[in-house]
């Protein structure tokens, strides 16, 4: 089973063991697992595909374009919020 709850990090619904998932994982960061349909930017809603670059901002996915917009607007940046850069890989099968 991925994650501590077996639930999608975006919608909170359970992820069956047979379903393909997208996950984020970096050293010293919590594992976030998403339904493929939920693996989308939290700002604009665009679905992230294999090869797309994204950022994790306080547990939410942000596409590279929206990340650049956030960085240009210094008032929108939240000091101290965990930020992680990643690149979308291929979907994985969920395990229980």
Automatic annotation (TrEMBL):
Region listing for Disordered, in residue ranges: 76-96
Superkingdom classification of source: Eukaryota
Keywords recorded for this protein, A-Z: LIM domain, Metal-binding, Repeat, Zinc
Signal peptide, first to last residue: none
Pfam family, one: LIM
InterPro entries the UniProt entry points to: LMO_RBTN_TF, Znf_LIM
Single GO MF descriptor: metal ion binding
Protein name (record): LIM zinc-binding domain-containing protein
Organism lineage string: Eukaryota, Metazoa, Ecdysozoa, Arthropoda, Hexapoda
């Amino acid at each position: 089973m991925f994650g501590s709850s077996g639930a999608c990090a975006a919608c909170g619904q359970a992820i069956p063991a047979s379903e393909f998932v997208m996950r984020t994982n970096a050293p010293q960061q919590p594992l976030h697992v998403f339904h493929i349909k939920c693996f989308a930017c939290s700002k604009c809603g665009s679905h992230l595909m294999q090869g797309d670059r994204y950022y994790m901002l306080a547990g939410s996915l942000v596409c590279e374009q929206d990340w650049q917009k956030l960085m240009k607007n210094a008032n929108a940046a939240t000091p101290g919020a965990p930020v992680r850069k990643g690149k979308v890989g291929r979907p994985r099968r969920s395990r229980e």
